[in-house]
Design a protein that fits this description.
This protein has 21 helices and 15 strands. It has 552 residues and is α/β, with parallel strands linked by helices. Bound molecules: flavin mononucleotide (FMN) and iron/sulfur cluster.
Length: 552
């Protein structure tokens, strides 16, 4: 009996509200009409409780009428509570307070120095450090650049070592795109359009553009969604477009397509993408223009020719390593070598992705970068192809490490979002971004002052390049492009660390095509054997892993 009574405790708030409604009603009739205010309030709560008991969606509300709403309220504030009260400087959710703070300081141009010493645990596994020189240099010109464009390219581009990674108009607001692009113009670096085509806000900013062509062919598609060479050629002729990037995949959701529902397609989004209003817009998971490595290279050749010889490359997150090797074999077979490859790590960001994809699909950036770098070295074409890297690169140290491990330049998406005020609220997919960046709501995006935020973008870039110059100088280098793996140490576990040459070695030039097998690199040779320029499909594996080489 007692247990049954106790189990009804959960209705206590509901019952109290009911009694309060009755009591205040009596009081209002007998004593004072002012009590009708209390009646209105408590009756409202009481009817909410009745609704909670009758609805079927939320079990918690059926069991805890009225009071159960507190849970939903607290849940909705959870990211903010965590960020403002609980989060430590190191918690990566996904960027640590320390990283975000660094971007904010550099973007605002305020003091970015740290007092008292490091807060890193320098003895924990995963800690990496740069080895400095006894003869440091002072670098005054920190406008570091790399020339992108191989021997077949007619209009090479001199890119900054740090650029804005792909983020579409549609996933970002008009003001965010305008602020990013204007910042890129002020700082003389490049802004990747993302797969959503080129909007009027990309053009208005006047900054250098990398036009991204993805499986939806936005901006260069026929009505049926297929690639239109004619539309592509007329877009690519625009002098603001400096390079063409074919997107195969991105780190946060490799192998996953997307769908922009009709309700979110505004007139301006439709204009940028070349799609009709009122119809769901599908981005297929894969491309319709090619289905084999050879086909991919032929398409790259076509884009190069249609763009008048601008640098053409592709972006991918590494999945099956054999497939990337197949692409490299196709490069060798066709002689069509992309001008650049952008390697996006699994740690990369997105507007929205299924959790399994965001957390568990694709290779992280450091491993992917060294794999791509070494495969190109092994195939003897590394000098023809420049490599860009993306994946949580926000500090000069992050850039230096990527350059050392094989990148020629770096891109950042979320770093530049922080520069224009992103507070990492992680509601990008809800259209309710609190700072007006990831939303199409015209009122919310008014929060972005384009003039001020574009200055911040340029300042963040400039200050990061200065910091890069500082650490390159400390290592005794006159240019950060000279960083090599041995300039870095990587702690594996307590009391053990590896030199960068051991952890991420540069493999011998041409080792995959020389015909000689290096015993320590037997896995590389085996995978290379299994890769085919004609097809992405795996060779048959009849009896398990030890038969692989035989099967191929
Ligand atoms: C809001 C948002 C939208 C993105 N849209 C695209 C896109 O259209 N195409 C693409 O290739 N990558 C896209 N990305 C991935 C980024 O370009 C980048 O590769 C990835 O986030 C890693 O960089 P980061 O760690 O500096 O953010 C997007 C990322 C974000 C955060
Ligand atoms: S503030 Fe939040 S919702 Fe807006 S862009 Fe940043 S993470 Fe996305």
């Amino acid at each position: 009996m007692l247990t049954t009574l106790l189990s009804y405790q959960r209705y206590a708030v509901f019952a109290t509200v009911g009694l309060m409604t009755l009591a205040s009603l009596v009081g209002a009739i007998v004593y004072s009409q002012w009590l009708f205010i209390v009646v209105g309030f408590s009756a409202g709560l009481f009817f909410l409780g009745v609704h909670d008991l009758r609805q079927r969606c939320h079990s918690i509300l059926r069991n805890y009428p009225i009071i159960g709403h507190l849970r939903f309220l607290l849940e909705s504030f959870r990211p903010e509570i965590r960020q403002y009260i609980i989060e430590s400087d190191h918690d990566e959710v996904p960027f640590s307070r320390q990283d975000r703070g660094l971007v904010y300081q550099r973007a605002k141009g305020v003091e970015d120095k740290r007092p008292f010493g490091t807060i890193e645990n320098v003895y924990s596994s995963g800690y990496a450090w740069l080895t400095h020189s006894a003869t440091p240099l002072t670098i005054t010109d920190t406008d570091f650049r790399v020339r992108i464009g191989g021997s077949a390219c007619k209009q090479p581009y001199s890119a900054s070592l740090y650029n804005i990674s792909a983020m579409s108009f549609g996933s970002l607001s008009a003001n965010a795109i305008l602020a990013l692009n204007s910042g890129a113009r002020k700082g003389d670096f490049a802004h990747d359009t993302g797969e959503g085509g080129i909007s009027r806000y990309h053009r208005q900013g006047g900054g250098d553009l990398i036009y991204q062509v993805a499986s939806g062919y936005f901006g260069c598609r026929n009505d049926d969604g297929s690639f239109s060479p004619k539309k592509f050629a007329s877009l690519a002729a625009d002098p603001q477009i400096k390079m063409i990037e074919l997107k195969l995949s991105q780190g946060a959701k490799p192998g996953h397509g997307g769908m922009l529902p009709a309700s979110k397609i505004t007139r301006e989004i439709a204009e940028a993408r070349g799609i009709p209003i009122g119809v769901d817009c599908v981005s297929p998971a894969g491309h319709g223009t090619f289905s084999s490595p050879l086909g991919l290279m032929e398409f790259i050749g076509e884009l190069r020719q249609l763009s008048g010889g601008k640098p053409v490359g592709f972006k991918l997150c590494i999945g099956h390593r054999r497939e990337f090797m197949s692409m490299v074999k196709a490069m060798l077979r066709t002689g069509i070598i992309p001008d650049f490859i952008v390697v996006d790590g699994a740690e990369g960001g997105t507007g929205a992705a299924p959790v399994e994809f965001a957390n568990r699909v694709g290779m992280p950036m450091l491993e992917a970068l060294t794999f791509v770098h070494n495969t190109l070295r092994g195939a003897g074409i590394r000098h023809e192809v420049k490599i860009g890297a993306a994946g949580k690169i926000v500090s000069a140290f992050d850039i230096a490490r990527a350059l050392a491990l094989g990148a020629d330049w770096c891109n950042a998406a979320r770093g530049f979002m922080f520069a224009i005020g992103c507070i990492q609220a992680q509601s990008c997919h809800t259209n309710k971004c609190p700072v007006g960046i990831a939303t199409q709501d015209p009122i919310r995006q008014r929060a972005i002052d384009v003039g001020d935020k574009s200055d911040r973008v340029a300042r963040f870039h400039r200050n990061t390049m200065r910091a890069l110059g500082d650490i390159a100088g400390a290592a005794g280098l006159s240019n950060p492009s000279d960083f090599m793996p041995y300039h870095f140490m990587f702690r594996q576990k307590d009391n053990e660390f590896l030199d960068g040459n051991e952890a991420y070695p540069y493999l011998p030039e041409g080792f995959l095509i020389s015909g000689e097998e290096i015993l320590e690199l037997i896995d590389w040779h085996a995978r290379w054997d299994r890769a085919k320029a004609e097809s992405f499909a795996p060779p048959e594996i009849p009896h398990g892993p030890f038969q692989w080489r035989k099967a191929a």
